[in-house]
Amino acid sequence: MKKDDCIFCKLANGDIPTNTIYEDDDFRVFLDAAPVTRGHCLIVPKEHFDSLEQLDDKVAAKVMPLARKMMKLLKDKLGWDGFNIIQNNGKVAGQTVFHFHTHLIPRYNDDGQDLVMKPMPLKDGDIETVLNEII
Ligand code: AMP
Ligand code: ZN
Q1: Is 101 a catalytic residue?
Q2: pTM
Q3: What is the 73 CA–ligand 2 centroid distance (Å)?
Q4: Could you tell me the distance, in angstroms and rounded to a whole number, from the CA of residue 34 to the centre of ligand 1?
Q5: Domain residue spans in the chain?
Q6: Which residues surround ligand 2, an ion (CB under 5 A)?
Q7: Nearest to 117 by CA among 93, 90, 99
Q8: Any idea which architecture 7-134 has in CATH?
Q9: Nearest ligand, CA 54
Q10: 39: how many CB neighbours lie within 10 A of its CB?
Q11: Identified catalytic residue from 48, 99, 101, 103
Q12: What is the DSSP letter of 16?
């Protein structure tokens, strides 16, 4: 299903032009309009899902194989030195477009980008406490 007021539905389905590097029945992969590195692109399903929580399992199962295929393409063409895959869900987690998508971010030794996670402050017992809440 498509969502009428969703920009990524329009981009993924070709209703608005994109800088597409790959397309199949389920997905379009296109260059991000505000890239954080050279070749930063997005895997976007043609069907609308707000985020990973709503994503269909069958579509979800195709995302990582496609990410690997795009990694290989980008390695051949751009020769990256490392690679980040980022997928944001919810405003607090940095999601700004509420149509599920996966960022593919080639990294280069000299790219000057900083996507490193910062450990939170931790007290004795915090890890055991959260473990006991989860299991
Ligand atoms: P997120 O913050 O994870 O929701 O990522 C949304 C991404 O979509 C950002 O990196 C934007 O730069 C990108 N973006 C938004 N609009 C467009 C567009 N029209 N074409 C390409 N990329 C876009
Ligand atoms: Zn959509």
Answers
A1: yes
A2: 0.97
A3: 26
A4: 7
A5: 7-134
A6: 3, 6, 8-9, 48, 99
A7: 93
A8: 2-Layer Sandwich (3.30)
A9: 2
A10: 21
A11: 101
A12: S
